[in-house]
Amino acid sequence: MLYMIVYDIKEDKIRDRVRKTLKDLGGTWIQYSAFLIELGTPELQKTMRKLAQLIAKTEGDIRFIPLCKKDQQRTIHLKNRKQVKETSETVI
User: Fold this and answer.
1) Which of 1, 17, 25, 73 has the fewest CB atoms inside 10 Å of its own CB, making it the most exposed?
2) CA dihedral sign of residues 7, 48, 22, 50
3) What pTM value is reported for the model?
4) 69 by DSSP, 3-state: which?
């Protein structure tokens, strides 16, 4: 299942660790505090445990948002025309 993982973490050091962890797990960084990552159930559980440990002693919020195929197909991506590259996403 594809997940969008978004997070709001005040501490730079912890936020950087979360970002690095998601990159190391194969996530694609799509916004400053947002990743897309494909995870099966065991990988999802492992990722949640790992990230929960990272934010355990800080104020932090991490959300795992499942994106089904239908949601992925309906995604609209707005971007500055100068930045547009070939993509399968809808770009306005």
Assistant:
1) 73
2) positive
3) 0.81
4) helix
Question: What is the per-residue pLDDT across 24-74, written as a single tens digit (0 to 9) for each?
Answer: 999 999 999 999 999 999 999 999 999 999 999 998 999 999 999 998 889
Between CA 15 and CA 21 the distance in angstroms is 10
Residue 80 has pLDDT above 60, yes or no: yes
Closest CA to 28 of 39, 41, 37: 37
Helix, strand, or coil (residue 21): helix
Block residue for tokens 């660790």: 17
Q: Which residues of 22-31 are buried (b: 16+ CB within 10 A; e: fewer)?
A: beebebeeee
